[in-house]
Write a structure and sequence with these properties.
The chain is of the alpha+beta class and about 140 residues long. It is built from two helices and five strands, in the order αβββββα. A five-stranded antiparallel beta sheet has the order 1-2-3-4-5, with no helix packed on it.
Length: about 140
């Protein structure tokens, strides 16, 4: 009799846990759907504008500069604990990331040297000739004349 009640209790526990997890997943899905997947809508009706964060950079302990897209405009905002200030606004395309630069192949010895032009360390900080040329250039700049 006791073993049947333990099995029944275990099944009830698993079923209850499944219901709680399903409710949590459903609530998360509903919230994500209502918020628009990380964007916020300003205004109401058909003219609602989407607000999207393009980038953010901390500039102090409690201050950041943020670039936000609102419709077809980009706003640069100064954000502190107590206020949000519009620093400037511009065309959203002015804040697009630059196209990546494609560079030709680099030898396995790095961009500064290969075995044909010297040692494996040619051009690196560890190279003796690089240190000597750096010291010479530094002396040229700092010598009193």
């Amino acid at each position: 009799m006791e073993s049947a009640s333990l099995v029944e209790l275990g099944l009830r526990l698993v079923l209850s846990l499944g219901v709680v997890i399903a409710l949590m997943l459903g609530a998360a899905w509903l919230l994500r759907r209502r918020q628009g997947g990380g964007t916020v809508r300003l205004g109401g009706g058909a003219r609602a504008q989407r607000v999207e964060m393009l980038g953010r950079q901390p500039v102090g302990r409690n201050a950041t500069v943020a670039i936000v897209r609102v419709g077809d405009k980009a706003l640069v905002l100064g954000v502190t604990e107590h206020s949000v200030t519009v620093l400037t606004e511009g065309d959203v395309h002015a804040f697009d990331p630059p196209e990546p630069v494609v560079v030709g192949p680099v030898s396995r010895f790095g961009p500064f040297g290969s075995r044909a032009h010297g040692t494996v360390l040619s051009g690196s900080v560890s190279s003796g000739s690089t240190r000597k040329s750096f010291v010479e250039a530094l002396r040229e700049k700092t010598v009193r004349r």
